[in-house]
Amino acid sequence: MVYEEEYPELALELVRRIKGELPGYFAEKADEFIQECQQAEVNIASRKASQNSIEAYAALLPELIGGSADLTGSNLTQWSGSSAINENADGNYIYYGVREFGMTAIASGIALHGGLIPYTATFLIFMEYARNAARMAALMKQRSVLVYTHDSIGQGEDGPTHQPIEQLTALRVTPNMSLWRPCDNVETAVAWKMALERAEGPTALVFSRQGIAHQGRTEEQLAEISRGAYVLEDCEGNPELIVIATGSEINICRDAVKQLQAEGIAARLVSMPSTDTFDSQEPEYKEQVLPSSVRKRLAVEAGATDYWSKYVGLEGKVIGMDRFGESAPGGVLMEHFGFTAENVVAVAKSFD
Predict the structure, then answer these.
(1) From residue 93, how far is each of 19, 58, 69, 81, 349 by CA, in Å?
(2) Is the per-residue pLDDT at 129 higher than 90?
(3) How would you label 59-82 residue by residue, b for 16+ Cβ within 10 Å and e otherwise?
(4) Which residues sit opposite 297 in a β-bridge?
(5) Cα–Cα distance measured from residue 102 to residue 109, given in angstroms and rounded to the nearest whole number
(6) 187 with 273: CB under 8 angstroms?
(7) Parallel/antiparallel/unpaired status of strands 211-212 and 145-149
């Protein structure tokens, strides 16, 4: 009581953090940042876009405490206000060393303690080392942001041992785990906002190593990103074909859909950065984005294919990975495994 009387503002701030509530101004400030990202139109890797988001949001949230499993320079998880706890006891950044499981488990402990929002980082393939701890975070419904970079065969030269294939599916099917794989700087900013606002469980944010193109959007499309999926490129009238994609594959799919439209095919492109978020939407919105009458559906993602059957159906097709990758420059691998606009067009035209 004496502390509250002497330091009323600090007391209110302490109570807010312990309750796990975000500042009242956070949502508005975050939306302003998202608008800035849309207007900036920068072509950068989503891991760099993630760092920009951390820079913006950490300045608003003093309770944010980050760290990486010996990959800070690759995960891009530091920001201008980062302070290492091994140098300053009141710091906000932890160099965990090569201990992905321990890092993820410690983050859950921090979340359980309350008053802080932890984020951790490693390569997506190294989620395997942290799987049990990530599962426990979901089981315990603890708010923890799991940053995973180098998200596909676009990793390139490091070879198949470092190229994730089945990890996206493993995370998506984990109960109470939310996952976002954004396609550009704007979807990344939205993904970070959603992860920080989600208090009922962990969120995996999956980012690219390679640069990816900014996507133009209307205000309506911008607002619909937070629904997990939305129509990014549409045709006139009702679509006869729907292409669904995520992450770095969005750009080639947008080019493909435009080509299909130019050839008289009523094609629609749906960006689906978060399947679980889309699944939680009202039936009317889901039907609006993915009309049940459209049987020709093609999903494109540089990861395991089986998961996408729930969206494309038995008559649909998937361009994905059903084998491990290879060692070569990322762009060469993408072309080799069919992640090109030309192949998307060809598969789209192969429907009976």
Answers:
(1) 22, 11, 11, 9, 50
(2) yes
(3) eebebbbbbbbbbbeebbbbbeeb
(4) 242
(5) 10
(6) yes
(7) unpaired
Which amino acid makes up residue 173?
V
pLDDT (average), residues 320-349:
96
**pTM, 2 dp:** 0.96
DSSP tag of 159: -
Task: Kindly tell me the sign of the dihedral angle through the C-alpha atoms of 61, 121, 46, 191.
Answer: negative
What tokens does 213 get?
């193109």
pLDDT band with cut points at 50, 70 and 90 for residue 2: confident
The pLDDT value given to residue 3:
87
Q: Which one of the listed residues 13, 55, 100, 236 is annotated catalytic?
A: 100
Render pLDDT for 158-202 as a digit per residue (tens, 0 to 9). Answer: 899 999 999 999 999 999 999 999 999 999 999 999 999 999 999
- 3-state SS track over 44-74: EEHHHHHHHHHHHHHCCCCCEEEEECCCHHH
- CB under 8 Å, gap of 24 or more: what pairs does 259-266 form? 259/341, 259/345, 260/345, 260/348, 260/349, 261/235, 265/240, 265/241, 265/348, 265/349, 266/235, 266/236, 266/237, 266/238, 266/239, 266/240, 266/241
Q: Residue 7 corresponds to which tokens in the numbers above? A: 């330091």
Q: Which residue has the tokens 């891991």?
A: 47
Catalytic-residue membership of 100: yes
Q: pLDDT value at position 39?
A: 96
Phi/psi of residue 301, nearest 5 degrees: -155, 135
CA distance between the termini of the chain: 74
Query: CB neighbours of 316 closer than 8 A, spacing ≥ 6?
Result: 295, 296, 297, 298, 299, 308, 309
Give the span between the Cα atoms of 149 and 345, in whole angstroms. Answer: 28
pLDDT of residue 1: 62
The tokens for 242 are 């729907």
CB 177 within 8 A of CB 145: no
